[in-house]
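re: that chain from earlier
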Amino acid sequence: MAPYLQTVTSFADVPVSDAGVDTVAFLKAAEGVVGLFDLLGSPAFVFVKTDLQTNIGKVRERYNAFPDKSSTLELLVVNEKGEKKRKATEGLMWLLRGLAFTCKALLISQANATQELAESFTKAYGLTLEKFHGFLTQKAIALAMKACPYRATLNEKLCADPAGGAPVSEAEMNEGLNKWLAALDAIVTRVQTFYTTGGHDKGF
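^ sequence. v structure.
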């Protein structure tokens, strides 16, 4: 079996067309991010893992109820617009924010080979989620970030073969991780721009 990133749906394989981002493939890829935090097994990421799972569930519930009107993320949001609660629209908004945080943290880490994860994730939090949280939540998360695993631990687990075979090299792992992150960043940016330009992030 291939290392972790090859066992999940890559954001690079999520179909994106003029109509939007494929909902089913996107949710499968997002589940891979949840699995990444499981792989790390650190209490520092409990808050983001739980948030991701909850919001994946909200979007999937909407898709299951109205698959014909939810084939892309954009279509799902547009078709929920006239409803009172817009549960999936809000869930997707927060899911994108959680993914943006994760993506930014790993991009910072990849760009700074000697930087520990605690610093990378703390910087990413300040650039993404912090402005949406109250003072007490900010302080709690700042404390949690101190419990981030070491960078070497992440690299070792991403290189390891889940089936127990020989690990891949860090160079090979980094190549796959960079591709995964680039695609994730592009999708998050695209859909967040859709939210902003369409005013879909208002009213929550």
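The first helix runs from residue 23 to 40.
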